[in-house]
Amino acid sequence: MEEAREPFAVVTVVRTVKPTSAIVGAKALITSTGEMIGFVGGQCIQTLVVSQALKCIENGASHLVLITSDPSQSRTTDGLTVLPMTCHSEGTVELFIEPKLPAPVLLVIGHSPIADNLQKLAAHLNFQVRSVVMEQAASADASNLSGLTETIQAQLSPGAYVVVASMGLYDTESILALQGCELSYVGLVTSPKRREAVLADLKIRGVSEEFCSFLSAPAGLDLGAVDPAEIAVTILAEIIEYRRKKRTFAPLTLQVTENKTRREVIDPICHMVVDLNTTLHKAEYQGKEYGFCCPHCRQEFLKNPEKYAHTVEV
Question: Which of 136, 48, 133, 140 is CA-nearest to residue 87?
Fold first, then answer.
């Protein structure tokens, strides 16, 4: 999975209180699609573990999770989430969830002193640095840029950071190749004056207002930088700001697709978030479908559905 640049999480059982089938030291791997490989406890806690692991993958932070039959008596600790145990066994399981995320991709387009310095510096900040240089492009003549779009898109990964630094040779063409991609940052090395000309050209050529607003031009924070190395530092500083604030651009088509992949509801018994599209435990009451984390919650609901019929979409 690491070679395929797929994010995942490793779940380790760190403490148990019997009765429970979990064993201290047991591990499981949770994929970004919610698949569990390994065993860290029975069916009752698997949905809870997967849900918490997916949150860790999303926010990139490690986390402790305590699943217990008596949450009110649990300790309060930073980084600890306490969840109710819904199994009849009523044991306790404490787990450590560690996300394993691929290094973010930084694609530098163009060959220039700024581009060279940017690649050298980014390597020290855990970026997977990639580059695209069209050596044959002596001007912005489109006839010299055959295959540029395909070359750029082949180097991208979802959420990549991109800096266009061709110094006017193929800036516009490079940005056009990026507009349909899911990106975390797009910066253009340019002057404020030329920025307006580039934006006007992009809009004429059909680039959305949303993407033009997302484009950082001139790239980098305004720190008064002068030489190429200093400018590269300002660009990396801006990328770090975007990265930590989790700014992203995704075309509307991508957003619609993502929204359809999960249909989250609240389990009316344990109040856990459940994906109605994938859970195996469902029930229908008065024409509405309800989702549950485990068979026990479903059975409790069916005993008195009128009491619990308040599930809402997240």
Answer: 48
Q: What is the pLDDT of residues 182-194, one digit of tens each?
A: 999 999 999 999 9
Q: What is the CA radius of gyration of the chain?
A: 25
Q: Where are the alpha helices (DSSP H) in 3-63?
A: 43-59
- Report pLDDT for 265: 85
What phi, psi does 203 have (nearest 5°)? -65, -40
- pLDDT tens per residue across span 52-81: 999 999 888 899 999 987 776 667 677 788
Of 26-40, 181-195, 226-240, 283-297, which range is least confident?
A: 283-297
- Residue 176 CA to residue 202 CA, distance in Å, equals 8
pTM of the model: 0.69
Distance CA 219, CA 269 (A): 51
Q: What domains can you pick out in the chain, each with its CATH number? A: 8-100 (no CATH), 105-251 (3.40.50.720), 262-308 (no CATH)
Q: Where are the beta strands (DSSP E) in 166-286?
A: 183-188, 264-266, 273-275, 281-285
Q: Is 190 helix (H, G, I), strand (E, B) or coil?
A: coil
> Which residues are within 8 A (CB) of 291 and not within 5 positions of it... i.e. 6 or more apart?
265, 267, 274, 275, 276, 279, 281, 282, 311
Q: And the tokens for 232?
A: 């590269």
Confidence band for 261, pLDDT divided at 50, 70 and 90:
low
Using an 8 Å Cβ cutoff, are 212 and 203 in contact? yes
Residue 106, H or E segment: strand 105-109
